[in-house]
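Lecture 7 notes. Example A: sequence first, then its structure tokens.
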Amino acid sequence: MYQRILVPLEHSPADETVLAHVRGLAKRLGSALVLVHVADGWVARNIKELDLRESEEMREDRAYLEEVSARLEAEGLDVDAVLAAGDPAKEIAATAERERCDLIAMATHGHRLLEDVVKGSTATALRHQTTVPILMVRAEKK
């Protein structure tokens, strides 16, 4: 049913919540996973326009993606990883299309009303930028 599942990671504890779900799904369906992290600091948002080098944040994000990929591959899963830069919703949608993913599985924080207005919501913005189905998994509050 789902050949390639895109999993946006935020480099936070919420990642483990969504990974717990997609591990089982990918194993049952024989799906490949595509992990994506969107670096969105100042350097990341301007790296192309200003011809900048990767920031320390981006190097740490790349190392994190490699570590998570290695763990999942050790479990027998087919995993690719992408480090993107810029606006998270736009980059996730673009990665899903470019990587030919047929499902996006992501953690959400369950903000409500004022929090969404103040913080924004990547999940909400993403819904309007892709036709790929989105599985939203509520991250556990610590």
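Example B, a different protein, same format:
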Amino acid sequence: MTLSTKNPDNSPFNILIKTFEELSPFELYDILALRNEVFVVEQQAIYNDTDYADQKSHHFMLYDGDELASYIRLIPKGIKYEEASIGRVVTSPNHRYKGFSRILMIEGMKLEIQLNPTSEGIRISAQSYLQQFYGSLGFVVCSEEYLEDGLPHVEMVFTR
């Protein structure tokens, strides 16, 4: 599925939504490179990014021109949590503060509701400093703070 829209400066960007099997080798490389650039290098979190959830997930890629600017994955219920989950929310340092993560989160939430109309919610593991961002999307903190990959996190849940 491809969604086309425009930046505030009127330049176009595209959102691709694909299952793992639908990803091209180039798209998969873009995804892994962006996740590595931000989570491993920038945030200095040494962890195993390839966790076998990718094969079961929907992948949301926001391309600004030819560059992967932002990405999330929607993980079905029963893989990470009892509920569906959105994770690996990441935006390239060159494309921050344009609302791309918000756009992808909303699209991910809409797809989960479309795929599972009786779904009770979406659970995320959020970096603690992003609680306000996720809260603005309707997520509520539902755990104490904990360390994940050396970074403070909280679980948050969105319910309808």
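Note on Example B: The two ends are 25 Å apart (CA to CA). The helical segments are 25-42, 100-115, 131-135.
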